[in-house]
Amino acid sequence: MKTLPPQINAILESVSDPEIPVLSIMDMGVVREVEVQERDVFIKITPTYSGCPAMDTIADDIKAAFAKEGYEAQVKLILAPAWSTDWITERGRKALEAYGIAAPLTEEADKEALLGNKKIVKCPQCGSTHTRLVSQFGSTACKALFQCEACHEPFDYFKCLK
Amino acid sequence: MSNSKINYILGIADNALILGQRLSELCGHGPSLETDIATTNIALDLLGQTRSYYQYAAELQGGEATEDTLAFLRKEREYKNVLLVEQPNTDFGYVMARQYMFDVFHLLLLEQLQNSNDEVLAAIAKKSIKEVSYHKRFSGDWIKRLGDGTEESHNRMQEAFDNLWTFTNELFLMTADDTAMVEAGVGVDVAALKAAWTQEITALLTEATLTVPDLKYFLKGGKEGIHSEHMGFILTEMQYMQRTYPNMTW
Ligand SMILES: [Zn+2]
């Protein structure tokens, strides 16, 4: 995506994923295209998962954030190319970890972790990799549930999606 | 031509919707917290995929059609889902057998559909592949755990496959709309997926110490709108709000 005018970028940065409030939609990588024509803004976003119930809220939040600054935003949902966890920015990954969600591993490592073959997912609380898979599916479509065997804290792992 | 396309899209979407509806019945009733969360997560993925297909079908149909009218206002005979997905959640063995057999088929279908010359269908397929691979991993794991588990779990897993097997052949039957869409470069030749499906199912069942059922006669009808006795109950539950309060919205 080309560099955006600072004000537009700041408005988009102010909108976050309603299920992970520390993660802005820009750091999440769901904003795919932005076009500004004076006070009209055309935005294309892509869902993380097909059934992600946050998408409607995100679209409404984008419109509201732009309206507050005197813009009229139109938001369109696009499916191609399909979202990948690679699009989460470095800052986004750090925000996830600070929030207590383990950031996605590489595709290969992810598979080993979710099959319970290897202990490689790092506990966001204490940093130990002595963790175990509790459930392949978690509180939202994008997460799996782990538990740390060092500090015993349960935590979410953001699954790798490519 | 365009009617064939709409019917074709509805066929794929209805499978996802009805299976999603079946799985969502387990919300709060799963045998354990983890499986409860898993089945409802899978239901959510399937519902999301359904919405993408229905939105596209409604756009092609035009007029008053929306994703909601397609989901909530059609009659039983107008649904094109296969009989397999409407079968009840008899026990967790049935739920996983139904899921795994559908997941293997679903993934094979999507892997072809992503090459469709219809860009929207190709995009939905690409998006869904990632989700469905994960569903298959989950259901396949459970077949192995239960099949190669205790005597009780083995017997019940085997019983589920024995009783659901009669619905599997329908997955590979071509309707007139299927044929038209294959010729147009839009759709997938499902008949050609049977060999790969059988091979994959056989390998997993063998690993799970289960026996692949040997059947000569199979049931069919769902794709043509002739459903089993379960379908009416599913629709009653799914549609009652729109039927009771027509045009209501949240
Ligand atoms: Zn820890």
UniProtKB/TrEMBL annotation, chain A:
Highest taxon of the lineage: Bacteria
MIP18 family-like domain ranges (all copies): 7-66
Q: Where is the PaaD zinc beta ribbon domain?
A: 109-159
Database matches in PANTHER family: 1,2-PHENYLACETYL-COA EPOXIDASE, SUBUNIT D-RELATED, FE-S PROTEIN MATURATION AUXILIARY FACTOR YITW
Q: Supply the name of the protein.
A: Ring-1,2-phenylacetyl-CoA epoxidase subunit PaaD
From TrEMBL, chain B:
Biological source species: Flavobacterium fontis
Q: Name one GO biological process term.
A: phenylacetate catabolic process
Q: Which GO terms describe its cellular component?
A: cytosol
Q: Which Pfam families match?
A: PaaA_PaaC
Q: NCBIfam families from the xrefs?
A: PA_CoA_Oxy3
Superkingdom assignment: Bacteria
The name this protein goes by in its record: Ring-1,2-phenylacetyl-CoA epoxidase subunit PaaC
